[in-house]
Amino acid sequence: MTEKLYERDSHIRTFQAEVLSCEKRAGFYETVLDRTAFFPEGGGQGCDFGTLADAAVLDVQLQDGVILHKTDRAVPLGTACCTVDFARRLRHMQNHSGEHILSGLIHRHYGLDNVGFHLGEEATADFNGILTRSQLDAIETLANEAVFADLPVTAWTPPPAELAALDYRSKAGIEGEVRLVKIGEVDLCACCAPHVKSTGEIGLIKVLDFEKNKGGIRIRIKCGKDALLDYRAKYTGVQKISNLLAVKQNEVFDGVEKLNNQLGEAKWALSQMKKRLIAEKIKTFDSEKPVTALFEEDLDGKELQLYADALHQAYGGIRAVFSGADPAYSFAACGEEAALNTFFVDFKNRLTVRGGGRNGIVQGTVQAERAAILAFFDAWQP
Length: 382
Ligand SMILES: [Zn+2]
What we know:
By secondary structure, the chain is α+β, with helices and mostly antiparallel strands. Helices cover 37% and strands 32% of the residues. The chain folds into 4 domains: 3-84, Beta Barrel (Elongation Factor Tu (Ef-tu), domain 3); 90-232, Threonyl-tRNA Synthetase, Chain A, domain 2 (2-Layer Sandwich); 247-282; 285-379, Diaminopimelate Epimerase, Chain A, domain 1 (Roll). The mean pLDDT is 95.
């Protein structure tokens, strides 16, 4: 059994321990100490990193009461000085303790249970029921009020009789000793992980967005420094948009919406102009050939189809229109169905073509140089 210093004090940054064993494994060493402040992964919280003597701690896992430290090099037996990467630990504790507060409040106010917690690049928490944005906003406010109140956070393992009399949140199926984490009067929850000493350490709790998940919801949260960095990144983003649009920061949404509407109108005007241009080009189309390929700049799928169809309606035959640049083009081709299908089979066989269609219209993309496409059209015979 390894003595778990992190259970007694979540703020131990350096400690001394006896190295009991250090065994070589594939690509790393497995080191066992008599006591440790390195938290092994558990309760949704990742393990600690740090240094153990001269070795870097890469992973920590609990196995049958023994805590295994994965180190990058061998460590001599005897006393070793160890240092926990406290920035990483604090980030874990801020997010995890923040999640406890949110989960406790959601349980109390809406009767939902936390059924999952994950802390990786970002923290997520799952609940077995649906909440609205305004309900989550209300919970977020209460959670931050609990932070501002700097409530004490305590952890202990009560004897069975005391435990039986307590009303606490817990995952189903916990056996043996139960360690409880109490956050003021806001939450009481079974948990093995280290937490902040008082809620003020969390700094800020922000509920980002949420999505439906297995009949409930999954919320994304950022607490502590994660929330600060997120705020900083978003502030910088809003500042840039504000400068770009020459509007006040609290008016950027209106500014972007206005710009978006203008863009929509400009796109519509452009499509109308393209339609008129295509109509003019149809009039001056001049080819004796029954199968032709035209190349035009900046036409989308709809415009290509419109153009090819107008040519076919006016002049018959198989009329294809391409847009793009060497060696990648989008195209649409129109013709009598049977002839077009024969043509399209040959076209696909000869060049790298993706696409299809029916009722006298085929559409897709072709990976080929313009010269190769034109050569194919010139040589093609039904
Ligand atoms: Zn927990």
